[in-house]
Amino acid sequence: MPIETEEELRTHYASVNVRAAQKVLKKLDDHCKAFIAASPFFLLATSNGTDIDVSPKGDPAGSVLVEDDGAALLIADRPGNNRLDGLVNIVNHPWVATIFLIPGVSETLRVNGRASIHAELAIRERVAMNDRLPATVTRLEVDEAYLHCAKALIRSKLWKPESWAQQRPVAPMGEMLRDQIGSDTEFETEAQMMKRYETQLY
After folding, report:
1. What is the bridge-based pairing of β-strands 65-67 and 52-58?
2. Which of 11, 46, 60, 79 could be disulfide-bonded to 89 (CB atoms 3.0-4.6 Å)?
């Protein structure tokens, strides 16, 4: 039988650590700002109120801008597959969650809040990359921010090269898509895909 209430769930765990309960911030402090400035990669979770999507986001460190003295973030939407799952979710249900990572740092930073999507030229110019403007910019008004301890990344050995597979452990994306969508569809080779990425990152 699944656990169905918070009360039942909490019987399986110890009381929350006092420090963990107190660490939530209502805006980004200097440590959070520095963490975001050093992070080249984060995950953005969105919802339409029922279903949830999580999208990986990557850019050179410092590309996510902090504004209003830590009360908001500006996130460029770089070229992708144009499904727009996350953006459509934000239009309909603006509450989002993020987790920022820094290579080699085992702690992570969570920032949650209310998002809005902007296409004004002035805001797009602020997060341009290689003289190319994003189609839109997501502005995240910070509701809460807090650091996560290192246990998950230590357990996973994420930043330990000696734990990484010596060869790619899964098929190339083109091969996987061929098998998932249909063998009659023509797909790129791995080399073709990487070549295309070189000109379509921004």
Report:
1. unpaired
2. 46
Mean pLDDT in residue range 91-98: 97
Band of residue 188 on the pLDDT scale cut at 50, 70, 90: confident
Count CB neighbours of 168 within 10 A: 8
Q: Shortest CA distance to 140 belongs to which of 116, 107, 109? A: 116
Q: What DSSP string describes 57-105?
A: EE-STT-SEEEGGGTEEEEE--S--S--HHHHHHHH--EEEEEEE-TT-
- What predicted TM-score, i.e. pTM, was given to this entire model? 0.94
Q: pLDDT at position 184, please?
A: 73
Strand partners, 58: 41
- Paired with 138 in beta bridges are 75, 117
pLDDT value for 109: 98
What percentage of the chain exceeds 70 in pLDDT?
99
Separation CA 69–CA 71 (nearest Å): 6
Predicted local confidence at residue 189, as pLDDT: 87
Does residue 2 sit in helix, strand or coil?
coil
The kind and range of the H/E element at 166 are: none
d(CA 101, CA 35): 8
